[in-house]
Specification:
By secondary structure, this protein is α/β, with parallel strands linked by helices. The protein has helices spanning about 1-10, 25-30, 60-65, 115-125, 145-150, 170-175, 185-195, and strands at about 15-20, 45-50, 70, 85, 90-95, 100-105, 130-135, 155-160, 180-185. This is protein-glutamate methylesterase.
Length: about 200
Amino acid sequence: MVRQALNSRRVDRIEAVVVGASAGGVNALMDILPSLRADYPLPVVTVLHVMRGRQNQLVEVFRQRMALRVEEAADKGELEPGTLYFAPADYHLSIEEGGVFSLSLEDPVHFARPAIDITMESAADVYGARLAGILLTGANQDGAAGLAAIGAAGGLTVVQDPAEAQVAVMPNEAIRKRPPDLVLPLRDIRELLLALPA
């Protein structure tokens, strides 16, 4: 089904993936990311809302469950294939020309820092049609504008089926702002990630 959906839409060669999530996001990410093999050829950048003042333990948690390399995005670090990156707690994460990370302490967006919108919008500027954006469960509208920017740049946009999401606000806001290419349950998003490098 997922391959048919991809074939029905012209998909340029995807070179990077950005995933955003908030409330319920850890469980959703656990459902879709551990299936990525050690030689997965794309960088996957994940932004998950983390409460201010709380240490981000996502890297350690996912390292224990994945064959793919898992790192925290570092300022001025280059995106590398075959790596899952997490945005650090309490920093906005942008992607600059040349595929380089940039961290900032600008004001929160939709009460969030890191904000999904900032990462997705900057990635859309750099990768255009070579970017896939995936938005999962969450309780506010962060990510809706970012995913719309990816769509406007010609990238592939995917939203978790709101009926399945632990919190449907974020998927519904994204669908309302700009209809995505695909609305999928987690099992199909997992299949999509595996199909993208083909």
